[in-house]
Structures are given as structure tokens and as C-alpha cells.
Fold these 3 entries.
Entry 1:
Amino acid sequence: MTSPLVSIGCLPAGDTETIGWVTSHPATRVTFAPALTPHTHAGVEELHLLDGELWINGRKLVPGDYNYGEPGALDESVWSETGCTCALITSTGDLLL
């Protein structure tokens, strides 16, 4: 099943698919559009990049890379020239900036 990424609090995006649950948080396959929205984490965020490239706060991620975001951490610079697909475990309450 796919749904807009707005369901987990970040815009814009292609689609999402819940692939399981980890400690009451959905594990989601996410396809991001090339432009993403800065946000503050409401809880832990774990991201495994599957395809494309993604920049988070000046760090370039490529397929196979992992990113951990602490609760309250700010992702103020999040973008991708190509768009990307990742496995994402995150809170549904992230604050968009």
C-alpha cells in the first residue's frame, strides 16, 4: 500500500510503503522527490539509503549509507538532486520548518 509522505511529516515526496514495525514505529520504504523540507525530529530517525543520493546537513549519503537522527535534532539542509529511495524508521510527529 502506498500513501503520500505527508503521513510521516515531510514534504514533498513520491510515495511510502509500510514494510514493518520497529518498537511501535513504522518501518517505511520512502521515495523522496528531489526537494525536501527541513524538519526537527520528534523522536529517533533511522534512515538506510537504498537508491539515489541524499544530502543531510552537508553529509552526502549514497546507497548503503545509514543516518541516525537524535530526538530534537534539526535537519535544516536536506536535499537530493536525483530523488532517492530509503528505508526509514521515524516518528510521525516531526516539526516541519
Entry 2:
Amino acid sequence: MVKTKIAKSAGRFGVRYGPHVRRKIADIEGKQRLKQPCPFCNGRAKRLSKGIWLCKKCKKKFAAHAYFLEKGELKVKIVKEEAIEQKEEKESNQAKPAKKKGRKKSTKSKSENPKKL
């Protein structure tokens, strides 16, 4: 008797869609059902919809991968964003904004200005 492979979560499709598609779906759904770590506080993140995640601990909502969070990649993006923000803050502190020259109001009243015909 031949030993069959375990279908995992893709077993609900039966023989439809082919073995490669069912295998890919089973792999993705297996990763999706694991507890996902929050990149900000290492709490638990919950998937709200495609690519939208909410951390249960720090209550931050963020965008990331659609099905599961990759640990190293997201932290690198966060570090890069923080570095960019710090650089922009330094540049804005160094460059003082020039004062805008406003339109000078005339001190003459309307009665003093004769109308031209």
C-alpha cells in the first residue's frame, strides 16, 4: 500500500487545482496561522486584512506583508525610516526659514488719494 502525503489545510480542495497550487497554499496558510511578532514591541500582531496588521500589546496599526510577517526585513525598513526622519530633522534645524516680506500697507487714507478718471 502506498503512503499518501498529508494534505494539510489545502485538503479541502480535493483533487482540484493541481498539486503545486495546493502545496503553495498549504505552505502560506501554515505560516499565516503562526503567531506573528510585532516589529515595534515584539508583542503579538493580528492580521486585520490584506497587509494590515494590529499589535495587541502596543496597539499600533501598520502595513506589511499580506499573509505573514518576515522578522528581519520589516525591522530593517523601520530602522531606515527612523534614520531618514532624524536626518530630515537635523536639516530642518540647520536651515532657518527666511522671513516672508509682506505687502506694505499704505498709511494714506482713501480721502487723500484722488480718483483718476
Entry 3:
Amino acid sequence: MDENVVAPAGRLDSVTAPAFLQAVNAAMRAADTGLLIDFSAVTYISSAGLRVILIAAKTMAARGGRLALCSLGRQVAEVIELSDFGTLANLSIHPERDAARLALA
């Protein structure tokens, strides 16, 4: 697996968000200018999971980098859309991992 890819699974909520944040922080340490989070195996996201995405977006922006999200299921996509995360300048959302990789290239 690529060092700049995080692929969480299951629910991203207050119970699992700390481990998700650890994985994202580790990937950000390894990533130069781009981080990809693949949501293909995520079934639910709460505000705790959204907080991790926001931290990642802000951290990557501070270093001039980008954050790409991909493979969002219906529920996750709806929550991200309602949260207006698509308006963050350095964050992009893609239907699949290959498109997200291209956006970070």
C-alpha cells in the first residue's frame, strides 16, 4: 500500500476516530504534498470522523499540500456534502482511487 493512502473501514465515529487520526497522522508524516483517503470500506461517518478529515485538510494546506477523498458510499457522501467539505480549497472528492491519485499527481 502507498504511504500516502489511508483506507479506513467500517464506522468512523467517536470510538474509531482516534485510530483513524493516528493512521492519518502517520500517512501525513510520510506524504510530501498529497494525502489520499479511500472511503470504499467506510459505512458510516460521524462528526468525529469529519473532524479527522478537517485536521488532515488543514495540516496538508499548511504545508502547501492537497487532500483527496475517494470512493465515498452514499451515506458518507451525503454527510461530507452537508458538511460543505467540498468547499475546502485543498480538498477534492473523486469517485475512485485512480482519479484521486491523478488529482494529487
